[in-house]
């Protein structure tokens, strides 16, 4: 696939390498890396390598269908876009770029609380199934929920896995913490990537200033002074979740759990779904991988709530593994960010196409013509 004169990578791994070259190094590290020793990021990927598929043969797979339903809505494949607050830094209006790609590809898009594009702008120009992610201790949480509901976001994704700010030292060193912290090193890094400087930062500046967290009223520019952890999850607890549940008229999904008992408790609080996730390995570095605990959680709450999983999905076969282990769908954070970083909406769409083609290929190889055919049958016990 060519974009202008450039050839877009054939795999998510290739697209990642292209993104590495395209955007400033500090920004690439911000989206790509983990916390502390980055064990969790590596382990999320290794967990997928450890799960092996056991194909059935002599099944007619000449026609395959990757479509399924998620929360009662048809989707083109069992995948949704996970919230990533910084998408607007890799591409001008990157949130919108990914949201549009998701709408065209027929998969839901989750808008992050700390997006650089507003809820209203996404609702107006993206289309498709829109979910809204909330850090529950955000001071304006109540009004954010009202705005999201009014704009047609049907699913509220409440992220609960960030009780304190994660330890990501390299961000401080390279100046690309979010909000952005100007430094000589960061400036040199940006000057070394003129296409990004002009095409992303330049366009924000032309439009009226540094990028902002558009959903947070009176939000500071994306500059020094990161919101404290207390503004993310802080002292929010199960009783608060219960109250939040009562206030939100749509479906509520709790994101960022790895413990069976927490998943059960979320369902008891009225959650319609849970996202088994360790925040892409960006928070607790010694965390288990979500894939490794997925089956236990599904066994406990399947039938009562929808189970989703994210962390480490880079291949269509990864989506097969997630579904075979019992989740209704996987979610991707970095994969579509890499795509958006190299070519905005086209790049994100390209990544979604790669994943769907690989998914279809793996369905064929495992003898599973449809998503409904994926079960423990194709897994090693
Ligand atoms: C750059 C970046 C920013 C993120 N921002 C948020 C966020 O604002 N809220 C949230 O709930 N999760 C956030 N996440 C976590 C993702 O929603 C998701 O859990 C994770 O990226 C999945 O792992 P993957 O990147 O390996 O697909 C972010 C992840 C990345 C990579």
Poorly predicted parts: 223-227
Q: Largest sheet, described in full?
A: 8 strands, parallel
Individual helix count: 15
Rg from alpha-carbon coordinates:
20 Å
Strand order of the largest sheet: 5-12-11-10-9-8-7-6
Helix content: 40-55%
Proportion of beta-strand residues: 5-15%
User: Span from first to last CA?
Assistant: 38 Å
SS content category: alpha/beta
Order of helices and strands: EEHHHEEEHHEHEHEHHHHEHEHEHEH
Q: In one word, what is the shape?
A: globular
Look at the structure and give the mean pLDDT: 93
Number of strands: 12
Bound molecules: flavin mononucleotide
Keywords summarizing the entry:
12 strands, alpha/beta, binds flavin mononucleotide, 381 residues, two-stranded antiparallel ribbon, single chain, 12% strand, 15 helices, 8-stranded parallel beta sheet
What is the strand and helix layout of this fold?
Layout: E1 2-3, E2 6-7, H1 12-22, H2 25-32, H3 39-50, E3 68-70, E4 73-75, E5 79-81, H4 87-90, H5 94-105, E6 109-111, H6 119-125, E7 130-134, H7 141-150, E8 155-159, H8 169-174, H9 184-191, H10 194-207, H11 238-247, E9 251-257, H12 260-268, E10 273-276, H13 290-301, E11 306-310, H14 316-324, E12 329-332, H15 334-366
Parallel strand pairs: 5-12, 6-7, 7-8, 8-9, 9-10, 10-11, 11-12
Antiparallel strand pairs: 1-2, 3-4
Bound molecules: flavin mononucleotide.
The site of flavin mononucleotide has 24 residues, from helix 15.
